[in-house]
Design goal:
This protein has ten helices and ten strands. By secondary structure, it is α/β, with parallel strands linked by helices. The strands form two sheets. Strands 4-5-2-7-1-8-9-10 form an eight-stranded mixed beta sheet, with helices on both faces.
Length: 305
């Protein structure tokens, strides 16, 4: 660990959300690199059940085996991992020590960033049409490293709002919403802000579908013990000042101020197309500013508690 920096985010779980095409995976890679350069241990959990390319984007040639197999498979195929909506109880064995984890399930790139993968849809054929169990892994997993400072865990979720509705944010310390210049992104930012505010205010989840009192109690416990501190926002794929100004004004009306702006970069799009590592050097300064913004929010929470 680089002693030159304070490490307020050590051990924190940060979820990255966004609509389809917003660039949340690019933002995940940017944040991972920035955290590593600031001296953090970093673990990326690929929690996107449909998108591919995160291993290549991080410079990992051989993807890790999916954690859904490590935890016993999906309930839809007779496995042990259930959907958090149907079964809100905690996932057994979800605390993972990287030093003891079977090497098949993790990869490290040249910078030392660890990559884990929750799983991908479509691998086992029809009848496995819900990725709820993958959300449960992302919600409950806790990563430790016995010989190092606890890593910052970045969880790259699939596009849209579904994972948030399943309660994954209750297991996060921070949520980051990535917005491209679209009305849909603005609405998603508003929705995420509202959901996090409701959870922090003590609002409980819908439980009318649960038929056992212990399941209702488990669902309530997840929300009353939620650790989410807040939601933060990043603008991405911004090509001109007019688009940035419009987004900022629209977000300001909702009480939202972005941490930073990632400019449109054709080389990044080309790397995703070719399945190549992302060269984030041109965005290094912005990556550092985004992480510094999250660090500042973390410190502010500590002072107010």
């Amino acid at each position: 660990m680089n002693g030159a920096y304070d490490i307020p985010l050590s051990g924190r779980k940060i979820g990255i959300f966004g609509k389809g095409g917003s660039g949340k995976s690019t933002c995940t890679v940017l944040m991972a690199n920035a955290l590593r350069k600031r001296g953090y241990q970093v673990c990326v959990l690929d929690a996107d059940s449909t998108n591919i390319g995160m291993p290549q984007a991080l410079g990992v040639d051989n993807p890790p085996q999916n954690l859904i197999d490590y935890f016993g498979g999906m309930v839809f195929r007779g496995g042990a991992v259930t959907c958090p909506v149907d079964d809100p109880t905690r996932l057994k064995g979800a605390v993972i020590d990287l030093k003891r984890l079977d090497a098949r399930y993790l990869r490290r790139n040249e910078a030392g960033i660890v990559l884990l993968a929750a799983g991908k849809m479509g691998r086992h054929g029809p009848g496995e049409g819900c990725d709820g169990p993958l959300s449960k892994i992302a919600r409950d997993i806790e990563i430790d490293d016995a010989d190092e400072s606890p890593p910052v865990v970045l969880e790259d979720f699939k596009a849209g709002f579904e994972d948030s509705a399943r309660g994954v944010v209750t297991g996060l310390d921070w949520a980051v919403v990535v917005l491209d210049p679209t009305t849909a992104s603005i609405q998603m930012a508003v929705n995420m802000k509202r959901v996090v505010r409701q959870i922090k205010a003590g609002e409980l989840p819908a439980t009318a579908h649960l038929d056992r009192p212990e399941l209702v109690e488990a669902a309530h416990q997840r929300y009353t013990e939620a650790r989410i501190k807040g939601v933060l926002f990043v603008l991405n794929k911004i090509s001109d000042e007019a688009s940035e100004r419009y987004l900022r004004e629209a977000l300001a009306r909702e009480g939202i101020s972005p941490l930073g702006v990632i400019r449109e970069d054709r080389s990044i799009s080309a790397a995703w197309l070719r399945g190549e590592p992302l060269d984030m050097d041109s965005q290094n300064e912005m990556g550092q500013l985004i992480i510094m913004g999250i660090e500042a929010a973390e410190r502010a929470c500590k002072l107010s508690s």
